[in-house]
């Protein structure tokens, strides 16, 4: 996908620069690329979204940003860093304006489960304990789900009741309950959680109660449905899973905030007078941080070659069932391509040109 490759080429240098600024300013967060499939987001269209994950290195809280949201934050980071380099005592803005900070109350998608409803077409009860998968396909706990066919009094139907072919239900009324009793083993960083879903043609999501203070929440959710069966409903039950999203808010960490306030990164005004050699060394370090990765541009004539290599990485990852690509793999591609470009232009550039440390993602 050409658009996906363009997004990767654009975002990788920005993420590299954001990580360098975060380290220099002592913000204790790290950014990385996340390739998120539409299935992981509970969407029907088959498209992979390029997003950016921000992870706090101490409390391990994570947030996902869209491409546009991250780019906006990155420019705010640059402004903060410029103020820091100029010795502005007020460079460290309040938390609510800090582009390196996100409140723990922000809603975060823990993961999704896909409930296949074919048994409902035969009016057979379904009881499942399903793995909650995040965008990488990694288990984030388990969710208990039940689908119980009922009679018009909302009592469970008798075991003798049997449908040989779901098409027999067309034009008849069916009654059933969707029950979400509990979840187990959610990640420790979550302070509260709840579930959301849309069934069939519903436009608005149905939400369970919010449960706080446990990673083994008891949602005790029950929703009753009644439909006059149509072919569209039969096709939905037979072909499309019910996607249940598990959302949560993460635990705050006041200790981390206090440490950052009491031990901020030094500005130019805080630095003691240094010897000439020390000044030279400090200047070189600051220069390394400030070097933008975008300056290491790749000629237009070589972009096609780079795109083919990135596409190869994507295809290999998909063939292996992976939903993410290691940042180092992508950075190595960019560095290899840059090395090729440098070699081609060696006649006009010094042979001992150094690469800024700020351009390397750890």
TrEMBL record:
Gene3D superfamilies: C2 domain. Pfam families: KIF1B (PF12423). InterPro entries: C2_domain_sf, Kinesin-like_KIF1-typ. Residues 267-290 have a biased composition (Basic and acidic residues). Residues 253-290, 340-362 are annotated as: Disordered. Residues 70-112 form the Kinesin-like KIF1-type domain. This is Kinesin-like KIF1-type domain-containing protein.
